[in-house]
Amino acid sequence: MTTMKTTDSSGDVRLSGISKTYGSFTAVHPLDLTVPQGSFFALLGASGCGKTTTLRMIAGLEEPTTGTVRLGDQDVTALPPYKRPVNTVFQSYALFPHLDIFENVAFGLRRRGIKSVKKQVEDMLELVQLGEQARKKPHQLSGGQQQRVAVARALINHPKVLLLDEPLGALDLKLRRQMQLELKRIQTEVGITFVHVTHDQEEAMTMADTVAVMNAGRVEQLGAPTDLYENPQTTFVANFLGTSNLIEAEVDTKSGDDIVLKAGGGKLVLPEARCSAPTTAGGRVLVGVRPEKISLTHADDAGEIPEGRNRVTGRIADASFIGVSTQYVIDSPVCDELAVYVQNVERDGRLVPGAEVVLHWNPAHTFGLDATQDIDAGIEEEAV
Ligand code: ATP
């Protein structure tokens, strides 16, 4: 099996103050970003946020307006694409239709004048699990198989960094999911740096170690998928990655490591460490909680809810049974429409539209955001 694992930093991607403007329009605001050698990094954002432009500046296909691109210790800002130790896989994989799969993969080696390509090509085809397909033509392969040929064709050049620009965009959903796992496996096996551009949050979270969420030409937040999901720092990230309930609240007091907030006539508790907004008394905070963190109890049983949980009363406005869970929409004094997802383990038949309920959750699952932001940022973009 081919292995290119290294422990050096020659595959680090370092962007310093890199930006791109077109006339008076800024596609990418000055950006500092380091992608460590060997990581699977995703640039995630809605259409037009500047992720492809950022990737193209790394590839050398777009000249930055300001800033530098370094690969390892080398400043490659002035180098043309073919002199950079990177390869790009695009959504349209553009294989050579008249060449068979073996020759498509061998192409980069032959162009460099390498004569004995057999072992390398075979290893590469094995890596992408297409050893059996070597003598087929591209049109005889499925979309997913063709995309794997495109990956093999890029990897055979031993790039320090592989850039992937929406590589799974042309595939149907099922194949996309399969290929996500496949690409992750390949990346782990070869150990080189992958920088992947996608608008699909699930795709970014499935594959990448680190995700940079971009919005309007800026990185809003960067971190491991779980960190971004559990601790969003902005309303855009909270709404773009999954669903968040955001409740407008006012800081009341502090109690130990917690902040106590007033919301809709009740009190909510938020660990101070999980609040990215100022926490002075009287200040406004958006209190966030994910729908699956909330439990739903019929109002008649409210006495059974353990002490120490955040509680909000409400009425079920809508309930959608989707098999694995039931998704409720709750009208409440703190917020018009709160989303609650309940796993279908033991279903309470009383939890139907019109029922009075108490929503409750562990305060540790609460996050706090600056209330001066647009509460709906990132919601429409999710559907792109
Ligand atoms: P998509 O997923 O739709 O490709 P993106 O996040 O990758 O979106 P970019 O392609 O990086 O977005 O484009 C960022 C912004 O820059 C967009 O508003 C786009 O219209 C603009 N833009 C890109 N290329 C040019 C160009 N050559 N001239 C003018 N504006 C451009």
Automatic annotation (TrEMBL):
Keywords: ATP-binding, Cell membrane, Membrane, Nucleotide-binding, Translocase, Transport. The lineage of its organism: Bacteria, Bacillati, Actinomycetota, Actinomycetes, Kitasatosporales. Its EC number is 7.6.2.11. GO terms for cellular component: ATP-binding cassette (ABC) transporter complex. Belongs to the ABC transporter superfamily. Spermidine/putrescine importer (TC 3.A.1.11.1) family. GO terms for molecular function: ABC-type putrescine transporter activity; ATP binding; ATP hydrolysis activity. It catalyses: ATP + H2O + polyamine-[polyamine-binding protein]Side 1 = ADP + phosphate + polyamineSide 2 + [polyamine-binding protein]Side 1. The complex is composed of two ATP-binding proteins (PotA), two transmembrane proteins (PotB and PotC) and a solute-binding protein (PotD). Part of the ABC transporter complex PotABCD involved in spermidine/putrescine import. Responsible for energy coupling to the transport system. This is Spermidine/putrescine import ATP-binding protein PotA. Signal peptide: none annotated. The keyword Nucleotide-binding applies.
